[in-house]
Design a protein that fits this description.
The protein is mainly beta and 418 residues long. The protein contains two helices and 28 strands. The protein has four domains: 30-141, Immunoglobulins (Immunoglobulin-like); 152-269, Immunoglobulin-like, CATH 2.60.40; 274-382, Immunoglobulins (Immunoglobulin-like); 391-418. It is elongated and about 130 Å long.
């Protein structure tokens, strides 16, 4: 049978041909490597006229495929120039998905450069045969000089949490205050205002294990005499960070070079946590018990949302989870669980083997959630014959009754003999 050739038939055939020609696998657009480039630090900040600038560039593979041979290239524009043109391209090598790497470039700022914002281009490519991808970044040059005589003082440093655990995220908030007490000051017969300016402020880690997640503050304006301002920086402590005090540096660009300052900011890292300790013997008598535990916060600061959950095969606990809430540093809390065995469980009843008990302590340190597991505890099973106990009590009562009856008969005989 011959199919009639209609306009609709031709349209359908044409659409099918077009779709077959241009169809590509759905994963083709989503599995390729994709590079994200960021300037994570410039030192000094702002860049100084007539001096070298160290710039750290980070490249992250945000795609779903491996980048086989990643290159980074700096394309400097005036007033920036490379210390050597051979250092314009740096190779990172292979970069797996969700992984990142960084390279440092050394640039020189021309001595005739003007203060202000200047741009620089950074190019990346996934391998030697791939095209370059380019992004432009702004870099601040120079510090303005003002006649103001206000001086910035670091008044307070607050870390949240107070002591980080390895892997934690949190904030460091610094309070800067203008120490001037009068609106003007006279020096050598000339009057000056006492405003304090914050042209730039940056927090830099001075040791491994701590990462500052924020870009520098810029052009924060001025503070009048006695005024204060809070600057908050987001920070992260790596999982392998060492315990103890880590130093960060707060670099402040003030009214002029004479009023620039660098302050040491300590950040504490401490892995101590919640301890759970049995406060009396772990025994199940005839399948029932009240188990008691001491819960102690050994961390240097308050922990929030503390809760303890017990678990043992064939045993049910009431409550199923004990919620304590906030616990101050060195605070001790005693909790109890009623434990009842499940007769249908294979591990309970006929055997007297100890039961493995595990306790999980969940809590928060600032915005970070943590869990500790105690799994080396054992509950002893004890069976007591309740019938024997009641029988002994009955025998004791009968002996008392017989003794009283005997004493009464003896007294009656004594009376008759008289």
């Amino acid at each position: 049978m011959k199919i009639p050739e209609t306009p609709i038939t031709f349209v359908v055939i044409f659409l099918l041909l077009v779709s077959s020609i241009f169809a590509v696998p759905a994963s083709a657009a989503t599995t390729s490597a994709n590079l994200k480039v960021t300037i994570v630090e410039t030192n000094p900040y702002p860049a100084k006229i007539g001096e070298y600038l160290d710039m750290t560039v980070q490249v992250e593979n945000v795609g779903r495929d491996r980048a086989d041979n990643v290159d980074i290239e700096i394309v400097p524009n005036y007033p920036f120039s490379l210390d050597s043109q051979t250092n314009a391209v740096q190779n990172i090598g292979a970069l797996a998905p969700d992984k990142f790497a960084s390279k440092e470039f050394h640039l020189f700022v021309d001595k005739n450069a003007q203060k202000g914002i200047r741009s620089i281009d950074i190019r990346t490519r996934t391998d030697k045969n791939s095209p370059w991808s380019e992004k432009t970044f702004d870099i601040r040059i120079g510090t303005e000089t003002f006649d103001s005589k206000g001086t910035l003082e670091l008044k307070e440093v607050v870390s949240n949490p107070e002591a980080f655990m390895p892997g934690d995220r949190g904030t460091v908030t610094v309070t800067l205050s203008n120490t001037a007490t009068a609106p003007t000051v006279t020096i050598d017969g000339k009057d000056y205002d006492t405003n304090a300016r914050i042209q730039a402020a940056v927090l830099r880690p001075l040791s491994d294990g701590v990462i500052v997640l924020d870009a520098p503050y810029g052009e924060m304006g001025l503070l009048g005499p006695g005024d204060s301002i809070k600057l908050t920086f987001n920070v992260m402590v790596s999982e392998d960070s060492s315990e103890g005090s880590h130093n960060l540096e707060l670099a402040i660009e003030g009214n002029s070079f004479d009023y620039n300052s660098r302050k040491n900011i300590p950040l504490e890292v401490d892995s101590s946590n919640v301890k759970v300790i049995p406060s009396k013997a772990l025994r199940l008598v005839n399948g029932e018990a009240t188990l008691e535990f001491d819960v102690a916060n050994t961390h240097p600061n308050e922990l929030n949302s503390v809760s303890i959950r017990p678990e043992a095969d064939g045993v049910e606990f009431y409550p199923a989870e004990y919620f304590i809430g906030p616990m101050d540093a060195d605070e001790l809390f005693t909790i109890e669980f009623d434990a009842v065995t499940d007769p249908s469980s294979e591990n309970i009843g006929e055997t007297s083997e100890p039961i493995n008990l595990s306790l999980s302590a969940n809590y928060g340190n600032g915005i970070n959630k943590h869990e500790n597991l105690v799994s080396n505890l054992r509950i002893q099973q004890v069976e007591e014959n309740q019938g024997t106990s009641s029988g002994l009590i009955l025998i004791g009562i009968l002996l008392v009754v017989l003794a009283a009856t005997g004493a009464l008969i003896y007294r009656k005989k004594q009376r008759k003999n008289k």
